[in-house]
Amino acid sequence: MKRKVSFQGELGAFSQVALHQLTGDNSEPVALPTFQEVFESVAIGKCDAAVIPIENTLHGSIHENYDHLLHFGLAIQGETFVRIVHNLIACPGVRSSAIRRIYSHPVALNQCRLFFDKHPEYERIPFYDTAGSVKMILEKALPDAAAIASAAAAGIYGAKILKKSIEDDRANFTRFFLLEPPQKKLKPADVTKKYKTSLVFTVKNVPGALFKCLSAFALRDLNMTKIESRPLRGKPWEYLFYLDFLGHQEDTVAKNALNHLAELADMLRVQGCYPVAR
Question: Which residues form the catalytic set?
């Protein structure tokens, strides 16, 4: 039986591309409207796992999902990177000269500004999802509209790609997490793979507190690959710190670093330990 794996958006969204990279053909994609519903689907047992975007090389971090990670407490079991290729997509038979309006997610529209600068005749219309915009123009058979989305979305809905790769920057990648319910026992490490550990912690609002916490990794030559701060609700001007470092949490050096951090931090939670994406 295939595992049910949820993602935000419609079939053909970039999250579904990431889902396939992370789970292959051994899963049943479940499309949901919002990120909160994606997290809830795993928390209540409706789905076995979820795939969510966590950061983009151009747009930055998806802060909502950092907040959901803390609230729902799901475990990060994997990561992958998806090259974001934005395509101009229309109904079969529609020509570029007939296009007057273009629908897509606001982030996708923003990442294609040079294309719109060259085509001031096109009206930009924000939509809730890239793949959803393709689905909508096909369902309504709009003769003067197009969408910006993935090639996968065009294939799923039987649409036509009018122009490929219209994004401003080809170095446009999104990092995705595979999330599952927390495991009582950590999966054993595969010695053939490199690992990354993600955690969240808080510190006292005193001079040098963050420096001392980060020294737990620097003193042991552990490479921190990401650090992100988020407001700590209920405590104005205090923050949560999300951190990724290279290493398996059960390695001796990593264990010592985490124990050191636990002595300094007010709160510490390991959110996942997983193979590094290529």
Answer: 174, 176
Rg of the chain, C-alpha, whole Å: 21
The fold adopted by the segment(s) 3-84+173-180 is D-Maltodextrin-Binding Protein; domain 2 (3.40.190)
Per-residue pLDDT tens digits for 159-213? 999 999 999 999 999 999 999 999 867 777 787 789 999 999 999 888 999 999 9
What confidence tens digit (pLDDT) does each residue in 102-138 have?
999 999 999 999 999 999 999 999 999 999 999 999 9
Q: Do 261 and 201 contact (CB within 8 A), yes or no?
A: yes
The answer to whether residues 134 and 92 touch, using CB atoms and an 8 Å cutoff, is no
Of 3.10.290.10, 3.40.50.300, 2.60.120.560, 3.40.190.10, which CATH number belongs to 87-163?
3.40.190.10
